[in-house]
Structures are given as structure tokens and as C-alpha cells.
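Hi U.,

Before I forget, here's the chain from the pilot set. I'm dumping it here mostly so it's searchable later in email.
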Amino acid sequence: MSFVQIQCTRCKTVFRDRAGRLQDGYSRQCPSCEVVLFFAEDSPNPQVKQAMKRARKARKEQREAEMARMSAPQVRGNFSRAHTGRIQLSSEDDEEA
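Structure:
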């Protein structure tokens, strides 16, 4: 989950919100001055445009990371949780003998 910093247009306070939420048509209230910010791709406000750009970039990076995780081979043992603490490495067995 990635977050994006947003600067309020009225009080200039910086707060953050999830990148997944910051899409065209989303609105959020500033936690300081309680003004409602509307997020749109064609907004004339540079702070809103910058936040939307960062959110788009963060969502893209998150999708790419998830695709890389999905395509990577998963290495998992066939052991239950109860037995994972009891397994000894073969090199330890050789040292004891």
C-alpha cells in the first residue's frame, strides 16, 4: 500500500492519502482547515495535479511490483507450522557426529 503526499490548497498543510484512492472524481477533506479538495485530472490547481501525478506513478510501481512477485517462482517447503521449528540442517548433523 503506497501513500501520496497532498498539499492543501487553502492552508498549505501537507497530509497523505492512499494512492489507490486518488483518482479522477475523488474528494477529500483537509484534516486541518476542513476544506474539501476535489481531485480531477484537468484541475487548474498545481497541487492537485502534482498529487494526481504522484498517485498515478505509485499505482504503476505497485502494479509492476505485484506482477514481478506473481511471476517469480515461490519457494515453499511442504512442512506444517508445527514441524518447522524441529527441522535441523544437514550441516549441523555432520558437526555433531
